[in-house]
Amino acid sequence: MMSVIVQNDEGFYVYTKGAPDVLMGKASRILIGDIVDQSEQSKDNFIKVVDDYADEALRTLAVAYKKVDEEEALYGATEDVEKDFILTGVAGIIDPPREEVKESIRQLHDANINVVMITGDHKKTARAIAYDLGIVKEKNATVLKGIDLEEMSDQELYAEVKNVNVYARVTPEHKQRIVKQLQNHQQVVAMTGDGVNDAPALRAADIGVAMGITGTEVTKDSADLILLDDKFTTIEKSVYSGRTIYANIKNFMRHELTTNVAEVLALVLGLVLFRSSVGNVAAMTPTLTALMVLWVNMVSDAIPSFSLGYDVAETDLMKEKPRNPNESILANHTWSRVLIRGTVMGAMVYLGFLLAAQNGLNASEAQTVAFLTLVYGQLWHVFDARSSRTLFRRNPFGNIRLVGAVLFAGVSSFLVTIIPFFNSVMGTAQLTLPVYLLVIFIPALPTLILSGIKEVFKIKIW
């Protein structure tokens, strides 16, 4: 409520604007045309108009006045001046929500994110706006007012807070209580605001979101995120971007760990099992040379892995439930998938080395077979690592950077086996065309077979 005192030829007048329910409590009469009416019927009619406006999602603002004498105008206390008003009218103001806001709320609901509206508006106005936006599904949805919160203990609010999506006529303290009780339900709470009175709730929330254009400096300082465009739709886009980034990090970890397991296992198997000479390969010859391992880590593994960071989200990412913030990045069978696929890949690398030795290839050639089997096994696997399900669910050309990285790694790894300089430095050797074809395409089989079984039988562990 705000009042001003104006002096004119007829004396001193107090003019006031404020919430209708507040002004009604401080008014004794209503101006109808030229008649000042103080009947209960006129007050009931006034309240009905306010309610009708509120039901139409209009924000309401009442105006009133009263005449005061000079002494009261100049020296009267506020509580004495702001009473016994004559109500003159009520304005219904609409700020229609953008259609994209409704769509953003629908997207957030699909993403299992609950949207709660906390406002200073009239109870009925708040309910109507919330219904129009899709925050609540029923026209008579429960709305808690600030005065209701005042009368509720923390335990009572705790019992109600998950079932209420609209709060009206609240104070900064109420916002803070709502946030804390939602957190007590193990909810991760994001709170938006732009005014100084929003700062305590933003600071209490897990994620405080401030408005960058209309937000005060105090609010921005209290926030974790600042919306530069002040649009609600940006929140929904931020959720989408955040989930995409997290999914890409998880895909990166899945691929890196799988290929590292394969590298280590291939070397360990050679150390443990290759105890006697086979063909032209001496006993205890390592499966891979040190520089081969370095090349795998720096080129054929790292470059495609980094390209996963540019991947777009899987189509149903915004339909998943929010993850537990305490959940390991390796949860949901990621560990088993890493170990199973890494073990199969590593075993195939050692098997390639062993078969090459048995077929009369020398040590450098056998190590080159193992090297290329590992390289191309990784390059086939990276397309499977893109998906939390299987490679058959994603377009392999959906990430052009990844395709380019795979081609670069594949071609460069082939070239280091035919260029004499790399032959002498890395210990590689040139192979025959049939062997090259085998080490390029055979390593695809584990990825294709395991993904195919998973796709058909819905096996989650790999």
TrEMBL record:
Domain Cation-transporting P-type ATPase C-terminal: 287-454
Membrane topology: Multi-pass membrane protein
Ranges in coiled-coil conformation: none
One term of GO molecular function: ATP binding
EC number: 3.6.1.-
GO cellular component: plasma membrane
Positions of transmembrane segments: 281-299, 338-357, 402-422, 434-453
Presence of keyword Transmembrane: yes
SUPFAM superfamilies registered for this protein in UniProt: Calcium ATPase, transmembrane domain M, HAD-like
Stored InterPro entries: ATPase_P-typ_cation-transptr_C, ATPase_P-typ_cyto_dom_N, ATPase_P-typ_TM_dom_sf, HAD-like_sf, HAD_sf, P_typ_ATPase
UniProtKB keywords: ATP-binding, Hydrolase, Magnesium, Membrane, Metal-binding, Nucleotide-binding, Translocase, Transmembrane, Transmembrane helix
Name of the featured protein: Cation-transporting ATPase, E1-E2 family
Organism of origin: Lactococcus lactis subsp. lactis A12
The organism's taxonomic lineage, starting at the top: Bacteria, Bacillati, Bacillota, Bacilli, Lactobacillales
